[in-house]
Write a structure and sequence with these properties.
665 residues; eight-stranded antiparallel beta sheet; six-stranded antiparallel beta sheet; 24% helix
C-alpha cells in the first residue's frame, strides 16, 4: 500500500520517505540521537520548492500534495547544528507517485452497521451531561479529566496505559453515538477532526496503538452509517486520509497484536472493508484486505482459544471478556464468511465457562483477572469431559485443573479447588506457576492476591510476583513470564479420584531459575489437603533457599505455634497447617501488610489499583540437590489427630493402600 526508500546519509542518519497517495511522509532517524541536531525537509515539484518544513527535533515532516503538484516530486533533507548553525544537506531523492484514493461507500451495507456490532458501551442519557460537566472518565475508578479542543492526544496525565488507550479509542464519543442526534454527530466530527489534525503534526505511540485503532475504525464505520441514516453529509475534514491510514495500519501484519487486542484490530478492519463499495486499486485492494482479515481472524481465534476452546492468556476473566466479544463479532454482518471450524471452537469455549467460576458463579481471579459480579447463563458443568465421585466433580481444562462440588450442592456446603498450570503467552501472565486457590463451605481459604492493575509501580510488581501466589519461590526470585519460556499446560493428566481423594499433578521446568518444580495436590474436600512439592536443583554444588507461600483472606488470622500453624476466620472456620521437609529444618513466618522500601508481603487487591493488608504465611527451608516438602491442611472443623499422609525422609507414606499404591507406583 505504500512505497518507501531508506537512505543513509554520511553514516549519521537514516531517512525513510513514503508516499501513500495522500501525503509524502519523511521520517529522519539520527543514529547518534544527537540532541544538538535539528532537521528540515524541502519538497520539490518539477525542480521547484513547493513546501518547506521548519527545523525541529520531532524529525517527521509531512507534506500533503494536490494532484496538480504531484509531478516529479523530490525531497532534500537539511541538518543543522543547534550551537553553531552549521548546515549539512543531502542530495535529492525522488518520491514515487500514486493515484488518488477515491473511496466510495455501499449504502446497503451501511444500513446493516449498528451499535451492537461496533463495541459501543450502552450509556444512559445523562452520560453526556456528566461528561460535559465533570470530564472524561473511561472507567469507574478513573479520575474525571476535562478534554478541551484542541486535545493533546499524546498527553498521559495519570501515567496510566489503560487511560491512554481509552482516550485514543475515542471512548468519550460513545454516549453521543448512543443518543445519535444530529448535534451529537457534529460533536463526534469535531473530535475526529481534532484527532486528524493532531496526528498529521505529531508522533506518538498512542496514536496508532493496536486496539485503539480497531475501535476507532468501528466508530468511523458507525459514524458514516449515522450520517447516511440521518441523510446528512459527513463533517470529517479529510475522510480519505483518515480511512486510508486506518486501512493501512490495520492491514499491516507487523502491527497486528497476537493477543486479544488483535481481535479488535481485525474487527475494525473488516468493518471498513464491509462498508466500502469501491476505491482506487492503487491505494488498496478491498478483496485482498478482506481475505487477509478473514485469514488472520481464523488464526487469531485459534491461537486465543487453543485446541480446547480455552483462552490462552492465562486469565479466566479474559476468557469471558474475549469469548463474549468474539461471539458478538462473528455475529456481525461482515464476518458471515468465517470458516466453520472456527465457529466450532467458539462452541467449545462456551462450555469451558462453567469451570472458570466459583460455586457462586463469580470469576476465578487467576492472572490479570478480577472477581466481579456473578456470571449468568453458564452451561452445565457436565457438558465438559469430567470425572465424578459422590457429590464432587473434577476436570482438566487445558492449563487448569479443578475439583469442586456439584452444582446441586448449596453454596454454604460447597468446596472448590482451582490448580493453575497455564502459560501459553506472556499476556496477563503472573508468576503463579502451580499455584492454586481454595474455598470451603463457600468461604475463601487460600486466595490469589489479585490483579491490581496496569500502573507500573512496586504494587504491580508485587502482585505479578511469585511470592504473592500460593507456590514455591527459590532464592527470592520470581519465575519468568517471558514469551520465550512458555510451556502451554503444566497439568499432568486428568484429575483422578482414589478412594475419595482427588489427585492433581503438575510439573514445570524453570529454566531461567534453574530448578524443576513438581507438585502433587491430594485433596479430600472439606476434610484434608496435602501438597507434595518436589524441587530439583539444576545448579551443581549450590545450596539455595526455598520459600513456600500461602495467602489467606483479609478476615483471617494466622497463629504460629510450636510445630504447627492455625488459621482462623471470622466465620468460625479453623484450619491447621503442618509441614515436613526432606532436606532439614523448616521455619514459619507470618506477615500482614508488610512494607519496607520496595519490599511488599501480605497484600491483596480486590479492585483496580486498590490494595489492602491480608494474612500471608511463609514456610522456609533449604534446597540442596533435591528437596521434598509435604504441607498438610486439616480442613475439618474437628481436627484430625493423625493425618492420612506423612513424609519420612523423602518418601511419602500413607495408610490408605489404594492411595499409597498410586503415589509410589
Amino acid at each position: 500500500m505504500e512505497m518507501a526508500e531508506v537512505i543513509e546519509i554520511s553514516n549519521s542518519a537514516i531517512v525513510d520517505i513514503s508516499y501513500d497517495g495522500l501525503k509524502v511522509d519523511v521520517k529522519i532517524l539520527l543514529k547518534n540521537e544527537n540532541e544538538h541536531i535539528e532537521c528540515a525537509s524541502y519538497l520539490y515539484s518539477n525542480d521547484e520548492v513547493i513546501y518547506k518544513s521548519d527545523y525541529k527535533y520531532n524529525n517527521r515532516h509531512i507534506f500533503y500534495i494536490s494532484k496538480k503538484n504531484a509531478i516529479n516530486l523530490k525531497i532534500k533533507v537539511f541538518f543543522r547544528d543547534k550551537e553553531n548553525h552549521a548546515i549539512k544537506k543531502s542530495k535529492y531523492y525522488p518520491v514515487l507517485i500514486k493515484e488518488e484514493l477515491n473511496y466510495s461507500f455501499s449504502s446497503s451495507n451501511l444500513e446493516k452497521v449498528s451499535l451492537k456490532y461496533c463495541e459501543i458501551v450502552s450509556s444512559k442519557p445523562e452520560a453526556i451531561q456528566i461528561y460535559e460537566t465533570e470530564g472524561f472518565r473511561p472507567r469507574e475508578d478513573s479520575i474525571s479529566y476535562f478534554l478541551t479542543i484542541p486535545i493533546d492526544w499524546s498527553s498521559d496525565p495519570f501515567n496510566d496505559r489503560n487511560w491512554m488507550y481509552q482516550l485514543n479509542a475515542w471512548r468519550m464519543l460513545e454516549p453521543y453515538f448512543n443518543r445519535g442526534n444530529i448535534e451529537d454527530l457534529n460533536y463526534i466530527a469535531k473530535i475526529i477532526n481534532d484527532w486528524i489534525y493532531f496526528e498529521k503534526n505529531n508522533v506518538s505511540k498512542w496514536l496508532w496503538y493496536d486496539m485503539s485503532v480497531g475501535l476507532r475504525a468501528l466508530k468511523i464505520s458507525l459514524y458514516l452509517k449515522c450520517c447516511y441514516e440521518k441523510g446528512i453529509d459527513h463533517q470529517i475534514s479529510d475522510l480519505d486520509y483518515l480511512f486510508h491510514e486506518h486501512l493501512r495500519h490495520l492491514s499491516d501484519p507487523k502491527e497486528l497484536n497476537s493477543g486479544n487486542h488483535g481481535l479488535f484490530q481485525l474487527h475494525g478492519l473488516k468493518s471498513l472493508v464491509y462498508i466500502l463499495e469501491s476505491c482506487n486499486e492503487e491505494a488498496c485492494s478491498i478483496k485482498s484486505i478482506g481475505s487477509y482479515a478473514n485469514e488472520q481472524m481464523g488464526k487469531l481465534i485459534t491461537s486465543q482459544l487453543g485446541r480446547y476452546g480455552v483462552h490462552t492468556e492465562n486469565s479466566p476473566d479474559y476468557h469471558f471478556f474475549t469469548h463474549k466479544r468474539l461471539i458478538k463479532m462473528v455475529n456481525s454482518p461482515w464476518w458471515n464468511d468465517l470458516d466453520k471450524d472456527i465457529l466450532n471452537l467458539l462452541e467449545q469455549g462456551e462450555l469451558a465457562k462453567a469451570w472458570l467460576v466459583f460455586p457462586n458463579n463469580k470469576c476465578v481471579p487467576i492472572g490479570d483477572s478480577h472477581t466481579g459480579s456473578a456470571i449468568s447463563k453458564l452451561p452445565k458443568l457436565e457438558s465438559w469431559p469430567h470425572t465424578k465421585f459422590d457429590n464432587y466433580i473434577g476436570v482438566k481444562v487445558d492449563g487448569y485443573a479443578i475439583i469442586r462440588s456439584c452444582a446441586s450442592i448449596p453454596l454454604e456446603k460447597s468446596s472448590f479447588l482451582f490448580f493453575q498450570g497455564s502459560f501459553n503467552s506472556h499476556h496477563h501472565k503472573h508468576s503463579d506457576d502451580l499455584s492454586f486457590i481454595l474455598q470451603e463451605n463457600g468461604v475463601d481459604l487460600l486466595i490469589d492476591s489479585g490483579k491490581y492493575g496496569y500502573h507500573q509501580d512496586k504494587y504491580r510488581e508485587y502482585f505479578l510476583s511469585t511470592r504473592s501466589h500460593n507456590t514455591i519461590e527459590v532464592d527470592e526470585q520470581s519465575t519468568t513470564r517471558s514469551q520465550k519460556y512458555t510451556y502451554g499446560s503444566a497439568i499432568l493428566g486428568e484429575p483422578k479420584n482414589i478412594d475419595g481423594f482427588w489427585v492433581l499433578e503438575g510439573r514445570v521446568d524453570h529454566k531461567v531459575n534453574q530448578y524443576i518444580h513438581e507438585r502433587t495436590v491430594i485433596y479430600k474436600p472439606n476434610e484434608e489437603l496435602y501438597i507434595v512439592d518436589i524441587i530439583t536443583n539444576k545448579r551443581k554444588n549450590s545450596l539455595r533457599n526455598i520459600d513456600q507461600w500461602w495467602h489467606f483472606d483479609t478476615n483471617t488470622e494466622v497463629f504460629i505455634e510450636e510445630n504447627k500453624v492455625v488459621i482462623e476466620t471470622n466465620k468460625n472456620f479453623s484450619t491447621e497447617i503442618t509441614s515436613q521437609c526432606s532436606g532439614g529444618e523448616i521455619s514459619y513466618h507470618k506477615y500482614k501488610g508488610y512494607e519496607l522500601n520496595d519490599e511488599l508481603i501480605g497484600w491483596v487487591s480486590k479492585s483496580y489499583l486498590q490494595y489492602e493488608p491480608t494474612s500471608t504465611l511463609r514456610i522456609s527451608t533449604i534446597l540442596d540437590k533435591k528437596t521434598t516438602i509435604l504441607t498438610k491442611f486439616i480442613l475439618s472443623q474437628k481436627l484430625l489427630v493423625e493425618p492420612t499422609i506423612s513424609l519420612i525422609k523423602d518418601k511419602i507414606i500413607t495408610k490408605n493402600s489404594k492411595l499409597s499404591s498410586y503415589i509410589n507406583d
